[in-house]
Write the structure tokens for this entry.
Amino acid sequence: MALLELLPKHLFTTRGWGLLAAGTASLLLAQIMGRRDLLALGILLIVLPLVSLAGVRVLKPKFQVFREFIPPTVETSSTATVRLAVARTGSSNASVIMEEQLPPRFGEPPAFRFPARSASGGTSRYEYHLRSGRRGQFKIGPVTAEFCDPFGLSLHRHTIDEGELLTVTPAAVELPATGLAGARGNDGVTATRIRANPSDDDVMTREYRHGDPMRRVHWAATAHHGELMVRQEESVTTPEATIIMDHRYSSFAIGPGSRFPAVHDDSFELLSSDSFEWAVTAAMSISAHLAERNYSLRFLDAAGNPAFHGSRSAPFPDAEEYSGSGGLQSIGESLAAIQLDGPRHPHGEGRRGDIRRNDAKGGEGKRGEGKRGGGGNPDGGEAAFEDRLMDKLAAHRLRGPVLALLGTLGEAEARALAPAAGFGANAFALLVTEHPRSAQAAVDALRLGGWRALAVTPRTQLTAAWSAFDQGEIMAAAAAAMDVRRGAAVER
């Protein structure tokens, strides 16, 4: 028995190996005894398993596999039901042992016999359950079948389909209600003030936008502000929120205890870290929180591009705006396989050397370094927190809050991002870092620009971080800075 366990498992059955052994013994005896009948018997015993092996590989049965995931996409730590329907398309009626191949994280692959006892119409149906504790896309399948010849001598394992991808999205954390929406109610609607005797002082105004009718121009406010202003007579029923999601490698550098990169055991590798996984969960949770309050959402990356343009799982990689339950579903699918990108140097490396080289030559630095404090990319990638991002934010100025999910920022990068607070009704920033104290300079720079900024670690509870935005110190600092900026803008 010990010898049989050492033999290859998927070539011959025990019977086939027995015939081969008997044939070899017969050939040896024929050589020793000079018996032709033993020679013929030995050849027959060896040839029969070999012919069976060739036949089972050439004349293998054909099947069709139909696979369904319920639900089609599943959240982390939730259970997905996989339903299989297997139908034979050939003429063979032999029983077959099948196995569904799975990534190692899902445990032992399920095995089943075809046809099933409950088969109907030539189709056998099977069902099993999967659960993943991490987001990603996982290849489920293919189904492999182990075929045996009619004599039970040889085996052959054959793949009968190509498998399908199961998308596991990050699960949203329920966030407490905060003052993020300002004067908006839980449904996102701003109440309009109604007075018995309205006057010009009671009229709400805003800057003129392309397409506004000239009859709504408020000339007194226009003279006061020095730019064309119009009456805002209607409440905004569909508020907007812009989320800036940083996914640069340099912002989420390797820290002690980080899983970097995170390999998902299925040949699909996601370059991630504990800090970035926290940011991804925060993005999903904030999106769900705002979608429940009827916000339309816009996702941008640090360079001002669509945030999900590099995500393998994004249904619409070039989309920026999302609304309704369908938009929230698209955001979840896009976050499933988003990963870090950009230059692979640790945060801050290369930039100082690049600046020193430019200074030595007497030339100017990279594009944008002189304008916004050095947010450019020294490795030739797109610059972060530069004109492209600012232009995107200016196009939706004051239509709702701006939220930034960031990694470790340098003080120069924080100063480059700080003016973006002026484009939102409110501005919130979360810096996810292993060392919050080292990020204090960046936090202070953002607060001076009007952001409600907070540095957290990957171990911080998301609900606690979200609630901290309503703390008096953070709110007061951001409000004071915003008043200063808006006052300077009026004077100009």
Q: What stands out?
A: Confidence is low (pLDDT under 50) at residues 182-202, 256-265, 346-380, 486-492. The two ends are 92 Å apart (CA to CA). The longest helix spans residues 36-58.
